[in-house]
Design goal:
The complex is a heterodimer. Chain A is mainly α. Chain A has 17 helices and no strands. The chains are: A mainly alpha, B mainly alpha. The structure holds protoporphyrin IX containing FE (HEM) (2 copies) and fe (ii) ion.
Chain lengths: ~450, ~130
């Protein structure tokens, strides 16, 4: 570690990994409820509550992961200590409390009760997908994001300004500003949906994508040691991201009740949303080959080279598959969407956070870049278990989605929803098996850190 | 380091070959392939450097593209029952997986060409 304030990243990473495990556990529970397995521990919680926990914890832990990564990168890139390390730790505890309260609220209370207790009636913002958190939790999260942006901005402004840290700054300031949309909830459903997508789409395909690209560039720079060429590629990738993603938002506007020209705008621009992922693959394979790097942490290299490939498949290919308006007309909101959601979230944000943790954690724990041999082998095994099982989960669900579209929408059969779900049972079984393998991967991943610890003793 | 890369002889031709392979897959199916065939016939025998390598690799890989994506898909489409959902549950994932794997290989080939290196397409490229 070059700067002692980089250590604030550690609690963020630990929280991220713990919440990741819980999120996946609830994903598995959801998967089990799709197949009627009547074990008591599966049905103790309703599907909607488990889904809330699954998706909301995902967003929360990814934010923990981003914050940890950025706190780690910024001092090094700005060549000075973090502006206010104490604030970073205080915000960590605030954010963790918010997350745990939200989690317990979803778990123990009915959603209506939770809304009532937290005063949703005074300022209603709840009940929209991914924005289900109580209004005061949202407010808390906004304050955390503001404090975080402030801390990073002050560090960047006082230090060396490079492509990577300026991009990270832009990413988090953008994330914070866009989050304001969470408080705008007009009663007209069309208008409400119109603006809700600003938040969802501009986060996951805009500002978060910029953060991802900056983290990837940082790790690749650390692997190859060639800053110039990394920054050159980063310019291209960022430029392509910004030019495609903004009007690409049209792919969420096809059927919500706005003007029809959005079908053209969304289709044309979101086709090109694959390009950033195309360039990311080109970038890593070009750069990592250019330099005869002797980088010894094999796990980091594996994560960093695989992230763009998987992102190309999950966000790029599966995104493209249903982004054309005439296709989306059939596939909108089916299991095809779910297949894309899973592979895209896993491949872009889960993998980039795990890449960064893989790089930074050994250093944060004074392990001089490389972990012990056994712990490294555990991490690589966990990588393969998680990545391969997620690939197959997405494949099974995409196949289920094709069947669903066929019998529900493309033909005159138009069977009732539940009957259709029954005919997809085998694929839901396969998904759950994939989920079990994924969870085993997560457990091995966590074991890795415990092994590394005992090695040191 | 990045300066001498551009001086590697026939790096340009290698980049063009890989780009044509990708264009054939992504935007100009058929047309880009014909251009690639023309380049292959015209330059393959003369060049022993990286351009020869990339030309031979992409030429061979493009023929596989034709077999896997056009021929196999056409055979499946013409023999399988279009009124069964199972047909589409097989053909669509088959096509998407094959196509994206071939595109990914092309991106890696292009990355190597840009770096002035040789690239061997696993399985679908000639071994020399
Ligand atoms: C950057 C990573 C990406 C992530 C994490 C991601 C994630 C998601 C998620 C979670 C949804 C579901 C939203 C809902 O609940 O309705 C979604 C929907 C969608 N995504 Fe992505 N996505 C990414 C990139 C892309 C790209 C690059 C494209 C286009 C090429 C795309 C096209 C779409 C489309 C068309 C929908 C709407 C599906 C529907 O109509 O049901 N996504 N995405
Ligand atoms: C890192 C791993 C995971 C990520 C990033 C993730 C992400 C997501 C997202 C974004 C959604 C919302 C999907 C949508 O609205 O289309 C979702 C829903 C869901 N996830 Fe996951 N998930 C993960 C792991 C799992 C696992 C291991 C399972 C177990 C089988 C699972 C099963 C489900 C189910 C059943 C739903 C509900 C879909 C529905 O509403 O029908 N997930 N997940
Ligand atoms: Fe989007």
């Amino acid at each position: 570690m070059l700067y002692s304030s980089q250590a604030v990243a550690k609690p963020y990473f630990i929280a991220a990994i713990a919440l990741f495990a819980v999120q996946v556990l609830f994903g598995l529970l959801l998967g089990m409820q799709y197949i009627p397995v009547n074990l008591p521990f599966i049905s103790f919680i309703t599907f909607d509550a488990a889904r809330l926990i699954h998706t909301n914890l995902l967003i929360m832990w990814l934010l923990f992961g981003f914050m940890g990564s950025i706190y780690y990168i910024i001092p090094e890139e700005s060549e000075q200590e973090l502006y206010n390390p104490k604030l970073a730790i205080q915000l960590f505890w605030v954010f963790l409390s918010l997350t745990i309260i939200t989690f317990l609220g979803y778990l123990l209370l009915s959603y209506a009760t939770f809304a009532k207790i937290t005063g949703n009636q005074f300022f209603p913002t709840m009940g929209r997908e991914y924005l289900e958190q109580p209004t005061i939790i949202k407010l808390g999260l906004f304050i955390v994001l503001c404090g975080f942006s402030y801390n990073i901005a002050m560090t960047v402004l006082h230090g060396r300004k490079g492509m990577i840290n300026l991009l990270l700054l832009a990413g988090i300031v953008g994330t914070t500003i866009i989050f304001l949309m969470a408080f705008y909830n007009p009663s007209n459903l069309v208008v409400a949906k119109y603006y809700r997508w600003w938040l969802i789409h501009f986060w996951i395909e805009g500002t978060w994508e910029l953060i991802m690209e900056a983290i990837l560039a940082y790790v690749i720079y650390k692997i190859t040691g060639d800053r110039k060429i990394v920054e050159k590629w980063l310019y291209i990738i960022v430029a392509v991201t910004l030019t495609t993603t903004i009007l690409g938002i049209g792919h969420h506007y096809y059927w919500i009740g706005v003007s029809e020209y959005w079908q053209w705008v969304g289709t044309v621009f979101s086709i090109f949303e694959i390009l950033p992922f195309f360039f990311m693959v080109l970038f890593v394979f070009n750069v990592v080959n250019c330099t005869k790097c002797q980088y010894s942490n094999k796990a980091v290299k594996l994560w960093a080279l695989s992230t763009p490939i998987m992102a190309f498949l999950g966000a790029g290919v599966l995104g493209f598959l249903h982004t054309l308006a005439p296709v989306n007309y059939y596939s909108h909101g089916t299991q095809i969407t779910s297949a894309h959601s899973h592979l895209a979230f896993y491949s872009t944000y889960v993998m980039i956070v795990l890449t960064m943790i893989s790089y930074a954690m050994p250093i944060l724990r004074n392990r001089k870049i490389v972990n012990g041999g056994l712990s490294q082998r555990f991490e690589i095994l966990a990588f393969w278990l998680m990545t391969v099982s997620m690939f197959f989960m997405a494949l099974f669900i995409a196949i289920a989605g094709i069947m669903q579209v066929y019998i529900q929408r493309a033909t005159d059969l138009a069977l009732p929803f539940i009957e259709i779900q029954n005919s997809l049972m085998i694929l839901y079984w396969l998904r759950s098996i994939g989920g079990v393998v994924f969870l085993i991967g997560v457990i091995i991943y966590i074991t890795k850190f415990l092994i590394a610890k005992s090695n040191n003793l | 380091m990045s300066q001498d890369i551009s001086e590697i002889p026939d790096r340009k031709m290698a980049i063009i070959a890989e780009s044509l392979y990708l264009l054939n897959l992504l935007i100009l199916p058929g047309i880009a392939f014909l251009v690639l065939v023309w380049l292959f016939i015209k330059y393959d025998n003369i060049s022993i450097g990286i351009s020869g390598c990339h030309l031979r690799q992409t030429f061979s890989a493009s023929i596989w593209v034709g077999l896997l994506l056009v021929l196999v898909t056409w055979v499946m489409l013409s023999t399988m029952n279009h009124d069964s959902p199972y047909t589409w549950m097989i053909i669509i994932p088959y096509f998407v997986i094959c196509h994206s794997a071939l595109v990914l290989l092309g991106i890696m080939g292009l990355a190597k060409a840009l770096a002035g290196k040789k690239f061997h397409y696993p399985i679908i490229g000639p071994s020399s």
